Amino acid sequence: RFCLPLVLASLPTMATGEEIIPALQDSWGDFWLFRFFVNAAGYASIVVPGFLLIKYFKRKNYLETGRGICFPVIKSCVFGSEVKAAHQDDGSLPLRAEPTESSTARQVFKLLFCAAGLQASYLTWGVLQERVMTRTYGATETDPGEKFKDSQFLVFMNRILAFTVAGLYCALTKQPRHGAPMYKYSFASLSNILSSWCQYEALKYISFPTQVLAKASKVIPVMMMGKLVSRKSYEYWEYLTAALISVGVSMFLLSSAPNRTVSTVTTFSGIVLLAGYIIFDSFTSNWQDALFTYKMSPVQMMFGVNVFSCLFTVGSLLEQGALLESLHFMARHSEFTAHAVLLSVCSACGQLFIFYTINQFGAAVFTIIMTLRQAFAILLSCLIYGHTVTVVGGLGIAVVFVALFLRVYARSRMKKRSKKLPPGETPVQKV
């Protein structure tokens, strides 16, 4: 009975030959793999009954036989109310609004506003994320304090505020008539929750700069899957930039600083969690791309996904008894309460800035702003939390971001060229 927990807790140690991380010494129940399965069981307790109900209503042909006060709700959740629309060009967001007789100064002001909003939201979010997951609260001269361990509660905090903001936005502004079956949002919601959870948990085992570079290298597995599964073709510059990114990330990961502490060592657990983040996040974007074939706005997507995210996370937290425990932690540490609330505010505002920036200036400008944000996030993390980066590691970071900027530039050139192609010719598919 005690052997399995001990084996699970020792997996990262056996894989890396390092000492057991302090986060794993408290109890085997704190090991991330155990918590992952417990959380998944909580989600399954909601997903499985919901799946059975959906199958039942479809088998009974409820659209024709259903009656009563619950009919509109069941119809909206299971069947939807509208046929699919034509798929938009970018697959995920509405076409960018072209500026109409707007002065250059006004456009520059809008661009600076978007850039400042994105940088402030996500840089603050990154700094707070690392603070909450890697530092203690309530430390005194005699008491070392305690760490907050439940990543799922932080995910719940982020989603409940995003749900509120999106709901208010949809209520106060005109939106397209919604037609997608509500249950379809649950797939993107589940993968989004798991990707966010992996992202928070990974910070217990790896440094924040490593996590940022791993996100930047997400294009590599996406290209590999596209080549193997969808038989997609890519241009030479896409292979070149992917190779540069892999070289840069390898330089950073293989470089070592003499005073690097255990808390910043890239462990096996951290690598697995980062891989989980990339896999779940890739599924989320692809599923949302499919959902946008229905007539909906990005904010409606944000609302629908977060409805299920709140349902899944609060259900799992209540089943585990972790919701009250986390609320008690908030009551004991007012500083953590402020950090958790600000973390949620930054996450929700950041999503709105994303929609507004892409709508006003397009995806290329947005990508440049967010790439700069990743570079600033690494710099801030090193300055605030004392992460040491060697010369080789710094060169690796520089190579990654040069490759990312080359990718944005090449893609914008390809888009301009594709617009000039004669009818019947189509450009090569790109990631």
Explain this structure to me?
It holds the Pfam family UAA. Keywords: Membrane, Signal, Transmembrane, Transmembrane helix, Transport. The chain crosses the membrane at residues 33-54, 108-128, 153-172, 236-255, 261-280, 301-318, 338-356, 363-386, 392-410. It is found in: Membrane. GO terms for molecular function: 3'-phosphoadenosine 5'-phosphosulfate transmembrane transporter activity. The protein is mainly α and 431 residues long. It has one domain (53-81, 104-136, 147-417). It is built from 17 helices and 2 strands. A two-stranded antiparallel ribbon has the order 1-2. Helix 6 crosses helix 16 and helix 7 packs across helix 15 (334-361). It is globular and about 70 Å long.
In short:
The protein has 431 residues and is mainly alpha-helical. It has 17 helices and 2 strands. It has one domain.
Radius of gyration: 23 Å
Count of all domains: 1
Report the principal-axis shape: globular
Structural class: mainly alpha
Main pleated-sheet profile: 2 strands, antiparallel
Q: Poorly predicted ranges (pLDDT <50, ≥5 residues)?
A: 1-26, 85-101, 257-265, 424-431
Q: Beta-strand percentage?
A: under 5%
The helix content is: over 70%
Encode the helix/strand succession as letters: HHHHHHEEHHHHHHHHHHH
Distance between the termini: 47 Å
Number of helices: 17
Strand order of the largest sheet: 1-2
Protein name: Adenosine 3'-phospho 5'-phosphosulfate transporter 1
Subcellular location: Membrane
Family: Belongs to the nucleotide-sugar transporter family. SLC35B subfamily.
Pfam families: UAA
